[in-house]
Amino acid sequence: MASTATVNNKSIWSGGAAPFKASYGKLMMWFFLLSDAFTFSGLLITYAFLRWSAPAYKGDPSDFVFSTEYWPIPEKVYNAFPGGFHGDNWALVFVGLMTFILILSSVTMVLAVESGERMDKKGVVKWMLWTIIGGVAFLACQAWEWSHFIEGTEFATVADVFINGRWVDDYEIFGAGLSFNQYGPPAFAALFFFITGFHGFHVLSGVVLNIITFFNAANGMYEKRGHYEMVEKVGLYWHFVDLVWVFVFTFFYLI
Amino acid sequence: MEQTSNVVVQPVDKNKIRGIWKIAAILAIITAIEYAFAFMMDAGTLRNIIFVGLTIVKAFYIVSEFMHLGHEVKGLIYSVILPMIFIVWLIIALVNLEGGAIKDSKGIIDYQPDGTEQVDDEL
Questions:
Q1: In a domain, A4, yes or no
Q2: What percent of chain B has pLDDT over 70?
Q3: Which tens digits make up the pLDDT trace of B22-40?
Q4: Which residues of chain A fall below pLDDT 50?
Q5: Cα A97 from chain centroid?
Q6: Are A217 and A125 in contact (CB under 8 A)?
Q7: Which of A81, A137, A202, B34 could crosslink A85 through cysteines, CB 3.0-4.6 Å?
Q8: Distance between CA A16 and CA A55 in Å, rounded?
Q9: Residue A208 domain-assigned?
Q10: Which residues does chain B have with pLDDT short of 70?
Q11: Contacts of A56 in chain B (CB under 8 A)
Q12: For residue A212, what pLDDT is reported?
């Protein structure tokens, strides 16, 4: 038997072998996701750093009012639900729904990968479609949340800004933009837009990848190829998007 | 083309499907627990630590089971996990120590409304 043992530990990296027992594409997807995790870590570090060095509100939460002087309590900002529902009873309900949608779409993605392993084309197509629906539903929720965040409680009108023939700076601001917002310091809205926006863009790319994979699977491309590895690779990306949301949810909405 | 005719669909492994939904249920329950803490506990350092801890538990289940990393070769597991451990170290150093130091050195004071009791943020 000794004569047949040609592969030793030295030659395992010299080609022809798969030391990590994963294909090139899958490995590269992992390392791309690692680098993407660095990017999101950078953003979350920036968020937490700016927040920890900003004045905090130390009073009773029930007396809380918005001010640009200190960082807002997240429960007081994200407390609206489509259909005109608003207030403390609705705090974080909508974000909870978004989290639930994304986790569910992650589950349907796992089921699509599982069907692919069994060469079950029908299963892959069905579960990919559910994953796409989940992704689109999440993006729709985010669009509503953004528009509500930007609109705020009321619009600032010309009457607020142009008083007695002069443009004034100290008018009351409603809603949020990049330089002013009604909720807290300018950095609060800027970070909200940048981090949830960057994550939303990842979700959008994921949905596009899912749609391409869905059509390829439905056309029998992967069946002809003999394996559904592309579903696994796209699945890795999709789970990563879910993973990032788990962190955004904690740092942005809970803490 | 000739390959399409002899594709054999393997039968569903019921236990595997049940396992996937079990992980989903765990993730949903942890999120529900986070909600309970958000509403039943006052904000503070301890609550933040609980939130981050539960988030890391959720991240473990997603990466290990959904992304299947727990079932990969050890070398692959470490090449993903080790860099992330260093990142967590960096996060703690930058956020906790540097953020607090900048706040102190700039003389930034927390907002304390008149006539309200101090809510203690420390552990």
A1: no
A2: 87
A3: 999 999 999 999 988 888 8
A4: 1-2
A5: 13
A6: yes
A7: A81
A8: 59
A9: yes
A10: 1-6, 115-123
A11: 110-111, 121
A12: 97
Q: Which domain holds residue A193?
A: 25-53+64-254
Residues 42 through 101 of chain B touching chain A, CB cutoff 8 Å: 42-43, 48, 51-52, 54-55, 58-59, 62-63, 66-67, 72-73, 75-76, 79-80, 83-84, 87, 90-91, 94-96, 98-100
Would you state the pLDDT for residue A53? 84
Measured between alpha carbons, how far is B104 from B96 in angstroms, rounded to an integer?
12
Of A45, A103, A117, the CB nearest to B94: A45
Number of other residues whose CB lies within 10 A of the CB of residue A48: 18
How much is the pLDDT for A14? 80
Say yes or no for a CB contact (<8 Å) between B111 and A19: no
Look at the alpha carbons of A91, A243, A101, B23 in this order and tell me if their dihedral is positive or negative. negative
Of A53, A109, A118, the CB nearest to B108: A53
Residue A198 lies in a domain: yes
Query: What is the rounded CA–CA span in Å between residue A41 and residue A188?
Result: 17
Interface mutation target, options A28, A46, A254, chain B, most CBs of B under 10 Å: A254
The total number of structural domains in chain A stands at: 1
What pLDDT score was predicted for residue A225? 93
Q: Within an 8 Å CB–CB cutoff, is residue A108 touching chain B?
A: no
Distance (Å, whole) CA A176 – CA A190 = 9
Query: Which run of H or E residues covers position B38?
Result: helix B14-40
pLDDT recorded at residue A62: 79
Say what the ipTM of the complex is: 0.84
Q: For residue A142, what pLDDT is reported?
A: 95
The rounded distance, in Å, linking the Cα atoms of A212 and A128 is: 10
Phi, psi of A163 (to 5 degrees): -120, 130
Residue closest to A213 by CA, chosen among A205, A101, A197, B7: A205
Q: What is the pLDDT of residue B61?
A: 94
List the CATH number of the domain containing A234: 1.20.120.80
